[in-house]
């Protein structure tokens, strides 16, 4: 489907980028598996860790200050 056609069927205020971000966030919540998310969405390690860290902050390493 073309991008213009998709924009017409999205709810007001919703964008394709927001929809994709929501799917990635949902995937992070569901699986919590960074490698699976990287493969599925074609995102970088830094990006996937932001999503997983948002959903599961306890899984991120905290360096002592």
UniProtKB/TrEMBL annotation:
<protein>
    <submittedName>
        <fullName>Uncharacterized protein</fullName>
    </submittedName>
</protein>
């Amino acid at each position: 489907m073309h991008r213009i056609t998709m924009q017409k069927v999205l709810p007001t205020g919703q964008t394709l980028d927001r929809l994709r971000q929501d799917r990635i966030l949902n995937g992070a919540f569901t699986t919590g598996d960074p490698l699976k998310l990287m493969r599925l969405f074609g995102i970088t390690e830094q990006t996937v860790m932001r999503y997983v860290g948002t959903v599961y902050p306890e899984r991120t390493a905290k360096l002592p200050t």
